[in-house]
Amino acid sequence: MKRSAVLRREPSAPKLLSAADGYDLAAPTYDAWAWSRFWDQVETPLVEAWLRSRPTGDVLDLGCGSGRYRRLVQGLGNRYTGVDVSEKMLEENRRKHLDFAPATLINADIARVPLPDAAADSILCTRVLSHVRAPRKVFREIRRLLKPGGECFLSDIDPTHAYDYTHIPTPGGDVAIETHKHTWEALARSIADIDGLTVVRREVHTPQSLHAGATPFKLPNGRRAVRKPLLDVFVLRSS
After folding, report:
1. Cα gap 80→74, rounded to integer Å
2. For the segment 45-97, what is each residue's pLDDT rounded down to a tens digit?
3. CB 15 within 8 A of CB 167
4. Counts of helices then strands in the chain (DSSP H, E)
5. Do residues 159 and 132 lie in contact, with contact meaning Cβ atoms separated by under 8 Å?
6. Measuring CA to CA, which residue among 107, 112, 118 is closest to residue 83?
7. Counting beta carbons within 10 angstroms of the beta carbon of residue 168, is it exposed (0 to 12), middle (13 to 18) or buried (19 or more)?
8. Which end of the chain has fewer CB atoms within 10 angstroms, the N or the C?
């Protein structure tokens, strides 16, 4: 589940779908979506820098979707396991990587991953929390899955960004997916409740800090990029 929302909800907004149903519908054309291409350009450098700072080992990609970071993870010598609630997104992940090293892909809720304790040296969870109603459950699962000293790189759309639901155009019609906004204060309280999980880094990125050398420019929704928070990044460490 690789996610970004772009529209405010209007009175006539379509019925909101669950992440599983919505991304199943959007899967065949998700990678061509303007926002998906945008994250390819601006989020990937952040993820790559963090991955290069980590020892190689078992990397778990929670909400992996069509596998945006699979080649990067495996190309750095890691073993890759992807988890996503959408089976159709996992099918795209498999299809895109037929020429690449085998990986484990699991259709599951990221708050209930069918893997043993301490299964991962590193965890990715990029732009997924906005589709989770209760993040504390996800943080508890991250703690369970990380080995001691393991880290989790999380990103999410800043809650002040102007959107109310995730809107993805497809050839069969627009798909609208239920979205939840979480303030940093609420997330931090949830993390603090979990023994052995610590925030070791936090960043708040504007479009300009993500898109160096391109000011002014327009976001994928056609709006001029302003210096307001767009992407929040934080890293958790297990002890």
Report:
1. 6
2. 999 999 999 999 999 999 999 999 999 999 999 999 999 999 999 999 999 99
3. no
4. 8, 9
5. no
6. 107
7. buried
8. C
